[in-house]
Amino acid sequence: MQLFNTKWRYGAVAVVLHWLIAVLILGLVGLGIYMVRLPDAGFDEIKIALILAHKQIGILVLMLALIRLLWRQLNPLPELAQTVPEWQQIAAVLMQLCLLGLMILQPVLGWLMSSAAGISVSFFGLFTLPDFLPHNEDQFARLRAIHDWLGLAMAGMIALHAAAALRHHYVLRDDTLQKMLGLRKRDA
Fold first, then answer.
1. Which of 28, 43, 60, 140 could form a disulfide with 116 if both were Cys (CB 3.0 to 4.6 A apart)?
2. How would DSSP label each residue in 30-61?
3. Is a pLDDT exceeding 50 seen at residue 181?
4. Can you say how many angstroms the Cα of residue 15 is from the centroid of all Cα atoms in its chain?
């Protein structure tokens, strides 16, 4: 597999970033849903450890998403299948941009939420991110609500994105999914 994107398929960097971010986000969604349902009493240490892991992985997703955005600007995207109608091409681009935007916005909201809670975010003990907001419980509650709802919206968009890829592969039988798996043979 080539490092860079071609007209026919995604390169190794785009493929690795796509699947790594996908796995991390799916883990974050599951972890987020699980940890907020834990009662505070009796699970204090476990819940705190899960919240800290969620924050650190979220910042990792932010960094990877920014790298992916830069990579996307430097590498042309493969062409869509010729059979894809124009409205679906527009929908595909909008979905990709929305998902990329949420990959950046969600961790930033989580970071701001932590700042408003008065708890700094550490990145795996390597460094601590600056707090941009003063401690404010009302602001924390608002940011948490937005973060929670956007997380659910993102999960729905990911499900739709995956369903569309599977539809292309199994129903339309085009090479859309193969391009992101790095399986497309034809390179010109």
1. 140
2. HHHHHHHHS-STT-HHHHHHHHHHHHHHHHHH
3. yes
4. 14
Query: d(Cα 126, Cα 68) in Å, to the nearest integer?
Result: 22
Cβ contact 49:35 at 8 Å: no
Query: pLDDT tens digit string along 81-128?
Result: 778 889 988 998 899 999 999 999 999 999 999 999 999 999 999 999
Q: 56: Cβ–Cβ under 8 A, 6 or more apart, which residues?
A: 121, 122, 123, 124
Residue type, 57: I
pTM of the model: 0.90
**Amino acid making up residue 24:** L
Secondary structure class of 73 (helix, strand, coil): helix
Helices 44-74 and 12-37 pack at an angle, to 10 degrees, of: 160
Residue 81 to residues 77, 97, 153, 172, Cα–Cα distance (Å): 12, 19, 27, 10
- Which residues are CB-neighbours of 77 under 8 A, at least 6 positions away? 5, 10
Its CATH architecture, for the domain 12-181, is Up-down Bundle (1.20)
- Determine the Cα–Cα distance for residues 99 and 91; give it in Å rounded to an integer: 12
